[in-house]
C-alpha cells in the first residue's frame, strides 16, 4: 500500500489558488464552445490507432444509442474483433459493411480494387444520406483516395452537398489527401514513434485486429 | 451508380506484376514477424484518439474473449459512453474502475489528486499481476506521471518485474515521460492537425465521450 505523501499547507494553498485560476480561465474558454455540428473527422499518418480510435468512437455512439455504420474499404471477410463485436452484439444500432477485397498486393488486380472502392463508396453515400445514422466510419478509405481509386474531389463535393448537418463522418487511413485535411473539422496525424513489428513481433489479437 | 473505369490491359498487367513483387517482399518480411508478446503500448501527444484507440483495443479483446480491464485515472463518475458500454454489456469480460476525481483544476486539491492517482495505481498493479487479464488500459495515467503524482520509475520497475509476459498494458495521456517512451514496445504520438474546439464546437457524445 502506497502512503499518501504529506504536502505542506502553503504548497497545498498555492496549488488550490493556481487551479482555481485555471478553472476560471477554462470555464470562460468553454463558454465559447457551444456549437454542435456533425464533424468530418480524419485519422491519418503512419502510426497505430487510426482504425481503433474510429471503432472507439463507434462504440461511444452505440453506448449513447446513436445509430451508426461502418464501411471497410480494405478489409474484406477477415474475422476481425471489430467485425465480430459489432455484427454479433450491436447489429441493431450499427450497420457493418466490409466492402474491401484485401490489400492491393493481395488482389493484384487494379480493376477489381477500383470496383471494390467504388462499391464501398456507393454504400457509404447511402449511409451518409440517411439522417437517422449519426456517425459513418469509412475505414481505410484514405488508401483508396491516395491510389486514385476514388476521386477525392467527388468525395468532398458529396460531403459538402449531401452530408446531413449533424452526421459525423470519420475517414481513416494513411496519406489522407491535402484537400481532405483542408476540408475536415478534426484531423489527427498518428505518428509512429516505435512499432513492435520492427522487433519481430507479429500482429496480435486485441492489439491489431 | 458509378461506372467501373476501363483499364488498359498493359496497365493491368504492369500493376499485377508490381503487386506480385510487393506481395513477395511483404511475405518475406512478415515471415520474420513470428513473435508474440505482451506489449507496453503508449498513446501520447496533444491530438485526439489516445483514449478512443485504447477503448478500440479493449473492444477487440472483448471480441476475442480475452479478459481485460480499464483503470481511469482522471475521469471519475462521469457518464461516458465507454463506461456505459463496458459496464452495461461486458462486465463479465472487462473490469472497469473509474478511480479519478476529475481534472486538477476541478479538484483544486493536490493531496486528493495524488491520493486518487495512488489508489488507481494500486488497483492497476493488482489487475496487471493477474495473468488471466490479457490487456489493462491505464487511461490518462500519463497525466499523473507528468505531474509527478506517480513516480515514473516505480511504474516502469513494476512493469519490468511483474507484468506477465503475455499481458498488454496500454498507457494513454499527453506528455508521456521520456523513460516510458524508451521502455515501451509500441508508441504512437497523436498530433493535433486541426481541432473543432478552435471553431467553437463543444465536446459531443460519440466523438469525445
Keywords:
homodimer, six-stranded parallel beta sheet, alpha/beta, 209 residues, 8 helices, globular, Rossmann fold
Structure commentary:
The structure is a homodimer of 209-residue chains. Chain A is of the alpha/beta class. The first copy, chain A, has a domain at 48-192: Rossmann fold (3-Layer(aba) Sandwich), CATH 3.40.50. Chain A has eight helices and six strands; from the N terminus they run αβαβαβααβααβαβ. Chain A has helices at residues 9-31, 50-63, 81-89, 104-107, 110-129, 141-146, 152-162, 178-183, and strands at 40-44, 68-72, 94-98, 135-139, 168-172, 186-194. The model of chain A has no long low-confidence stretch (mean pLDDT 92). The interface between A and B is large, with 93 and 93 residues. β6 of chain A pairs antiparallel with β6 (186-194) of chain B. Chains A, B: Residues 15-25 have a biased composition (Basic residues).
Quick summary:
The first copy, chain A, is built from eight helices and six strands; from the N terminus they run αβαβαβααβααβαβ.
Helices and strands, with pairings:
Two copies of one chain form a homodimer.
Chain A: H1 9-31, E1 40-44, H2 50-63, E2 68-72, H3 81-89, E3 94-98, H4 104-107, H5 110-129, E4 135-139, H6 141-146, H7 152-162, E5 168-172, H8 178-183, E6 186-194
Parallel strand pairs in A: 1-5, 1-6, 2-3, 2-4, 4-5
What is the CATH T-level topology of the domain at 48-192 in chain A? Rossmann fold
End-to-end separation of chain A = 36 Å
Widest beta sheet: strand line-up of chain A = 3-2-4-5-1-6
What is the H-and-E element order of chain A? HEHEHEHHEHHEHE
What structural category arises from helix and sheet content of chain A?
alpha/beta
Number of helices of chain A: 8
CATH top level label of the domain at 48-192 in chain A: Alpha Beta
CATH-scheme architecture of the domain at 48-192 in chain A? 3-Layer(aba) Sandwich
Subcellular location (chains A, B): Cytoplasm
Organism (chains A, B): Paracoccus marinaquae
EC number (chains A, B): 2.5.1.17
Keywords (chains A, B): ATP-binding, Cobalamin biosynthesis, Cytoplasm, Nucleotide-binding, Porphyrin biosynthesis, Transferase
Amino acid at each position: 500500500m502506497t502512503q499518501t505523501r504529506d504536502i505542506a499547507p502553503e504548497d497545498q494553498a498555492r496549488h488550490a489558488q493556481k487551479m482555481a485560476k485555471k478553472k476560471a480561465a477554462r470555464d470562460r474558454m468553454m463558454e465559447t464552445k457551444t456549437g454542435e455540428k456533425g464533424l468530418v473527422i480524419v485519422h491519418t499518418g503512419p502510426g497505430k490507432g487510426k482504425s481503433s480510435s474510429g471503432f472507439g468512437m463507434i462504440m461511444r455512439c452505440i453506448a449513447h444509442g446513436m445509430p451508426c455504420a461502418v464501411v471497410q474499404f480494405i478489409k474484406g471477410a477477415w474475422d476481425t474483433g471489430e467485425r465480430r463485436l459489432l455484427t454479433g452484439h450491436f447489429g441493431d444500432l450499427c450497420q457493418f459493411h466490409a466492402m474491401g477485397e484485401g490489400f492491393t498486393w493481395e488482389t493484384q488486380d487494379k480493376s477489381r480494387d477500383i470496383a471494390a472502392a467504388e462499391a464501398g463508396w456507393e454504400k457509404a453515400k447511402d449511409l451518409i444520406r440517411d439522417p437517422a445514422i449519426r456517425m459513418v466510419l469509412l475505414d481505410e478509405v484514405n488508401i483508396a483516395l491516395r491510389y486514385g481509386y476514388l476521386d477525392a474531389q467527388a468525395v468532398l463535393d458529396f460531403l459538402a452537398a449531401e452530408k446531413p448537418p449533424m452526421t459525423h463522418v470519420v475517414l481513416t487511413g494513411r496519406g489522407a489527401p491535402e484537400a481532405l485535411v483542408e476540408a475536415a473539422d478534426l484531423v489527427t496525424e498518428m505518428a509512429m514513434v516505435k512499432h513492435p513489428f520492427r522487433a519481430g513481433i507479429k500482429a496480435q489479437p486485441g492489439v491489431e485486429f
